[in-house]
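ENTRY TYPE: protein
CONTENTS: sequence, structure tokens:
***
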Amino acid sequence: MLLSLLVVAAILMCSILLSPLSNRVGMPVLLLFLGIGMLAGQSEIGRLLAADTETAFLIGNLALAIILLDGGMRTRVETFRVGLRPALSLATLGVLITALVTGLAAMFIFDLPLLHGLLVGTIVSSTDAAAVFALMQNQGLRLNQRVSATLEIESGSNDPMAIFLTILLVELVSGEVAPHWSDALLLLLKQVLFGGLGGWLGGLLLAALIKRIRLQPAFYPLLVTAAGLTLFSAIALIDGSGFLAIYLMGVVAGNRGIRNLDDILQIHDGLAWLSQLCLFLTLGLLLNLADLSGYVLPGILLAAVLILVARPLSIAASLWPFGFRWEEQLFISWVGLRGAVPIVLALFPLMSGVEHAELFLLVAFVIVILSLLVQGTTLTRVARALKLELPAAPQALQKAVLDWGDSADHRLLIFELDGEHWTPARTLSGIRLPAGVVLSALLRDGELISYKPELKLQGGDRLAIIGREQDELPLAKLFSSKESIPALRENVFFGSFELNGDVILSDLKQGMGVAVADELLALSLQQYITDSLPNRPIVGDRVALGPLTLVVKEMEGEKILRVGMKF
């Protein structure tokens, strides 16, 4: 027992220590964890830590539940206004099309009966929330809201359809009597309704509970985790989708202003990474490289069909009513990442004793590895090539919530002033700060200095400010201006000039000499941009106006506040 504990702890530590190397070479960290598990499984360590199917299935479900809970709490409600309908289309129709096309290809590639081929397609049909959340967060991608919202909601909500189809096909393949269509429909309704309703009610109850009780700060993340796993298990016991329930629970609770949310998210970030690490290590231990070798070439061929044919077809069919640009559809198609979910689904036929059960697991491994290698390593480059990445939003160097009253919503924000914009040193005289913020102190060369209006600020100073959550962005724009590659600098991306969204086109024509058709002169910039787009505008949307390109720069709800201009 102690030797097993030593080995597990050592593997975890090595995986964590190697993660910076993984980032530098562009390899997804999840693939690193999977590879270490595979290597351990081929050695004496693998015999010591032999992972049976039931254990791997349990670890997989628990890990995915925690990952979805963390992803749900980080999903803002504004995301649903933009991406709910297209994401639900992808999570249902998209999964069906992907499963059908991939399943038919698997039938011919592996010479399988029709139902067995469709089962292979179903197992690899859904995108993996763990992989999507982890890679987008780890690579620091800031995509336009239409794309990011659709990807987040799709990856968090497409499991019910994939699980339903997998269970149905396993019963068809292994059962002597096929389930009646009404039983299949009832199973799908249970998955969606129990999961959706349970997640919504669970989120409301959790938020209300946290607001009404006082605990030590360290207990709040544990309470959220325990409540989430309780809901996940309870919904799964009544044939609902526990994955959908725990994801929606996180969304509802995370958007209701619960106490200590920042601290909860920080702890859950670590829990989510630990869950992914343990999950991929465990799945790696299941894999026998000798068995895998015979499935590599046909698995690569099936992966090519999935990535280059099935996923693009499902995207085109699912998103055509929603006015997505071809660049957005292409990127969403490319980010159809497969991770732990296909491998966990592949354990269903293995535990049910289905014929060719080992094939499902090995093919799922090949496709997951290729997806992480090919798609996971190229996300940033593809997003940048398709011009879907936005300039990184400035933010505080550090922040901490000040829990000093139920009605107060204040936090301590620390900003580091850069030398480019704060040289020479100057005071804040004449600079308008957000109402209600208090500048408290600054740290200069290791010395703490109380802030005074006559104090000159300079590059390298770290300034501590007390304000509200909505004050962070305007303060960050003033005090922080770290920029990445030149193409993503704000003045390059949005243009060097900007106007209010309520500026009338006739004024723009008169002031700048821009050619504007007479029937458009009475429109504001906001109206013109909104009328020119096939769907609701988001930050980063571009519309041509004569020689100008108008770029949506800032929004409040559905109202365009600021518009950038590029000549």
In short: DSSP finds 23 helices and nine strands in the chain.
